[in-house]
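Budget justification note: compute hours in this period were largely spent on complex prediction jobs such as the one shown. Inputs:
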Amino acid sequence: MTVVDIPLDRIAPAPWNANRMDEPMRARLVASIGRFGLVQPLLVRRVGDGFETVAGAQRLAALRQRGEATAPCVVLEELGDAEARLLSVALNRIGGTDDVNALGELAREVLAVLPAEAVAQVVPLRLAELQGLAELPKIARGEGPSAAATLAQIGQAWERAKRIALERIAFAFTAEQRQTVEQAVAAALRRVGSDDPNRRGAALALVCAEWLAGRRQRVHRRV
Amino acid sequence: MPAERFACGVGASSSMARIQRDDGGASPTTPLHIAPKDLVIAPIPHAVASRLVRAHHYLHSAPTGLRLSLGVFAHGALRGVVQFNAGPRGARSLFQGASAAEVLSLCRLWLDDRLPRNSESRVLAVACRLLARHTPAKAIVSYADPGAGHVGRIYRAAGWLYLGQSEPQPLLALDDGPPRHTRSVSSILHTHSRRYLERHGFQVRLVPTTPKLLYVKLLDPTWIARLRRSPLSYPREEASQP
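Corresponding output:
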């Protein structure tokens, strides 16, 4: 199998490609290519004077986003339309699943040498999930705090939350009503201390208190 | 491991039968050779537990409002999870004067099919013991969904109290969308009022659901006095239910 460098302007993504990638995943792909380079060549076939991707449309888009000029490619010389589509789906869809324990061990080893934020830029895992997975081998080996100590800590957190809980009231507004409320809250926010952890709630309470006081005055004047 | 351990009731290690997973897992798998002392339960990060739940639990969705995730370990590998959250509003109100810290809802339980058959009951028993000893929790509620073929056998085996059926709440289907729980409609539109939605142009279809079977485990036996419902005898199982 020969890998050749082909200018990006001679490669087109297959219009029939069914594989889609959202922006966060594309950002990871771009970050991964930035970190490691393109280590997996694109798979392309000849179409007219140029080439069409069979596998690698997303990598092609990421390379363009990075401003690269060429891509390493494997060229499939004789591949019919149906075969190209079949191979594309097969390459995109045949895959395995993660073993959570192996993934935990892997996360632990990687996070031991690389900062978590940098790792999260490349792998499709949330930071909390990545850090949680990295903790797993330690828990499985029974290292660290005991289950009893962890549970006691969790229980204390529940109690603490109960003591300091702010009460939530849910209101539903139309867009127009919401704008009115937001304007009133924004105006009242200037008079709420910056150290108040519930500034918006306090501002709304201030608006309501002033409205009630005004109403009392109006009633008083009428009497 | 300093976590509590439990003994399995059957000698799984002597069994060489191969089992096929319910979800059609491609190949029959060999049961794990587990000595009773090998199963260990310990708290694990929610993100890890939810990952397993999304992949393997029949609902394939991670619950919200999580309070506690416990991992079930065999031979030092994670083989199952139990998750608790605050549950629906009605859960706490089953008890007089209960706080949110005192009543938990068992919202997900998934164990690897290769664990011995009675592992669920054993795992629940140990989880309850851990909660009773080390947290302020006094009771756990759980809802078995007969619509999904669940009648709560594991709760019965573990001696949980049966409190009857929950009020069935129909699902809402907006326009040609899928039926959704009223809570998820509310979390998107901040209302599930049928009149309001219809007034604003939605076609609302009510999809009836079956009532859930409500089970309770008292971690503090004195809390029986706080129960607002009287425990009932377990309902008879239909022949077709697994």
